[in-house]
Amino acid sequence: MTATSAAADFRCGYIAIVGRPNVGKSTLMNKLIGAKVSITSRKAQTTRHRITGIQTKDDTQFVYIDTPGFQTRHKNALNKNLNRTVSGTLTAADVVLFVVEAGHFDNADQLVLDLLPNKVPAILVINKSDRLKDKAPLMAFAQQVAARHDFAAIVPVSAKQGFQLDRLEAEIRSYLPASDPIFGEDDITDRSEKFLAAEIVREKVFRFVGDELPYTSTVVIEKFEEEGALRRVFAAILVGRDAHKAMLIGQKGARLKEISTQARLDMEKLFGGPVYLEIWVKVKSGWADNEAGLRAYGYE
Predict the structure, then answer these.
(1) Whether pTM exceeds 0.85
(2) Residues 280-293: pLDDT tens digits?
(3) Under CATH, which number does the domain 3-175 receive?
(4) Class of domain 193-296
């Protein structure tokens, strides 16, 4: 689709997805665009970058921006960087999705809510609504949160189950500006395959090691090669201590092998071709303690 071929009533705009950590923002965006471009796990701070997901449907192009969960703990360089990403995204958005977990609203949610700009339409998205089987508590909770902000709409959803996402899309579209598409109709993200490969490996690290591994672990793609449909990916997992390295490798390398296998399968599904993946674990502490270290590893 090109600018000249866009319909007269075509709509396109940026939709910021914000909320405290672990309310399901990444899962929601992946479901909305129909592809996994933002990694998910139960570990807080899984999303560390601003991730763009693109969905083009008929006369609308939705450009979703998945943001890191707003951090209220550990006032270090990394968390300050994550919070700047959230705040900066809000000012550039055409629509904001403020995501909360059904039946749960605390000070961390309120801190994000306080960031919402008054001039940008915000939709209250109550995720995991399938957990409240009785509609009465869900309605009471929606009214409680709605009293805190002038929301353009309120939509209970289940990102995991895909419940009411069509209704959410309709609400979003009604607030998007009339505009030609920004991206090609087949694009699903503006991030490179190299970036996505690093994110996939990082997701598997968190899934298989979980809370045992500190938040300062990250993944660097040292080499990314393409040969026809084949991708060769050489990745390094950076950890702060030798003990963390041993934890990731596991007994006789079993844990690292499982991380590599699952990461490779996800890459092949996303890239649509075979992937050769090698992963090393390296000890490198202190990279997240200052702005220079963050920039060196791709943090805006």
Answers:
(1) no
(2) 999 876 554 434 44
(3) 3.40.50.300
(4) alpha beta
